[in-house]
Amino acid sequence: MAADTRLRAGVDIDGLTYDPLRGTVLSRPFLFLGRRSNFTPGMPAAATWEREWQHLTGWKRWLVVTGAVHASFTDVAVLAGQIGLDTGAELSGTRSLEITRAYVRAFFDRHLRGAPRPLLDRPSARHPEVTLCTP
Length: 135
Prior knowledge:
Blueprint: E1 10-13, E2 30-35, H1 36-39, H2 47-53, E3 60-65, H3 75-83, H4 93-112, E4 130-132
Parallel strand pairs: 1-2, 2-3
Antiparallel strand pairs: 3-4
Helix pairs in contact: 3-4
């Protein structure tokens, strides 16, 4: 996003940021979505998100999902469940897929389609596993 202004909104799903923004300011919408066990503010893995957070001057959210593992945000979790493999997640693959789809869809609907999505503004009774963080 820092290198290509055509990108109107961005999401980091459970990944470290390896290329620091440093003096760059990113004013376009950005969503961090990750597992609570790694990306809660103050945890070592969250340090890269915390570093970038200060350079994000547009709309931004930092959400963590309780019971998720890295595979929870991919189709691996669903497929593993179908063949009986344990990913180590407390959430089922189906549930983690529902959460990922709901929040990513709400983010892009809001910022690319201009549709209001209150799911991104406060805790949701439908998604109690998701916590809004304020680093």
